[in-house]
DNA sequence: TAAAGATACGGACCAGTGGTCCGCTTTGCA
DNA sequence: TGCAAAGCGGACCACTGGTCCGTATCTTTA
């Protein structure tokens, strides 16, 4: 079944909506100040179009987030070390969390909006499931972790440390510099994985 | 200045509102199904009364949460070990987190509602500040942690591991038993603090 | 190129929320 | 018992996410 190509105006509008929403989120205000009507207006589009294209607010946010996340996802799935598959597990865990942190820092407002969107906890989202699954499986490759039954919870706990609202609090409000935060997280991971307090920040 | 005692009907209503809201949250549904009008109706009270007494939704939630948290707060501040002040730091950190976890499990819906309430991130709330401050100061009593500059971030990361929505996901959706979760958290803390994977659950 | 059928548009509209307001009741004090 | 003042409560408001359907646009076919 050849999936029917979208009409040209449809893709144009979809693009416009993405750009507008992205701009509105990036421009700083609180996530709930970015309203559906506002996005529609900024994109020069009717509200109906928004809802037909994305279903609901959460759908729009997911789509945007997914698009932003795409490069990182690819780097993780089929890229070179330290993010890609061919990396020793200890190093990869650290790289993954560092990447997640950087992403959250750079897309704080969007991530924040997504996490507090629509009732369903962020833990139900596909992207969370996949990050957690990956992190868990990498943790299980560490010596002594394989059958311990702790990998899953540890993965949750590590991801919790880079939650968007915590990041926003630390970076946005407390003014912790990005590199400082990366160093802290790196040390945290190191301490957790092998008890040694290696405080070097993860490399780029 | 003798603070003017509230009128009798005022305190009666305040009490009724507390009880009603508490019941509605406890009875299970999603936090946003518990509406201000609903609480007012359940308490046999007008909406205006709610807003005058608590300011806004967030205020009501904070008040309820505070009341629920009171016994635990007291146990932590002036109680006997392992929660109270006279406890060795390693043990106390574990006890604090265990207590926080249990509290969140028992009051999931209320905690969830509070955390996602009203725009302001949960990290702005007083009770979060105080828990974080305490945890941080206890961490700093551990050998090697005093001037490391890692205590604050570690405290944030540990508290993130007992976030209400994570707890809700694990206990409420994935069906992880309470004791299992406590054991996981205990192991997590132990691993973080001294690298040893001590998997015994914290005692009551 | 013209006409028709399908697809998408978009703004008026709806339901439900948090929050406000003000005439009326209750309370506490003299 | 009288009388301020404090408190009450439901009608009301602003605003949100979400729906609907007549209309404009696009694509295809002759």
UniProtKB/TrEMBL annotation, chains A, B:
Gene3D superfamilies, per the entry: Tetracycline Repressor, domain 2
Source superkingdom: Bacteria
Entries under InterPro entries matching the protein: Homeodomain-like_sf (IPR009057), HTH-type_TetR-like_transc_reg (IPR050109), HTH_TetR (IPR001647), Tet_transcr_reg_TetR-rel_C_sf (IPR036271)
Pfam families: TetR_N (PF00440)
Name this polypeptide is given: TetR family transcriptional regulator
Keywords from the UniProt entry: DNA-binding
Native species: Streptomyces tardus
A single GO molecular function term of this UniProt record: DNA-binding transcription factor activity
PROSITE patterns assigned: HTH_TETR_2
Domain HTH tetR-type: 11-72
Lineage of the species this protein comes from: Bacteria, Bacillati, Actinomycetota, Actinomycetes, Kitasatosporales
DNA-binding found in the keyword field: yes
DNA-binding region location: 35-54
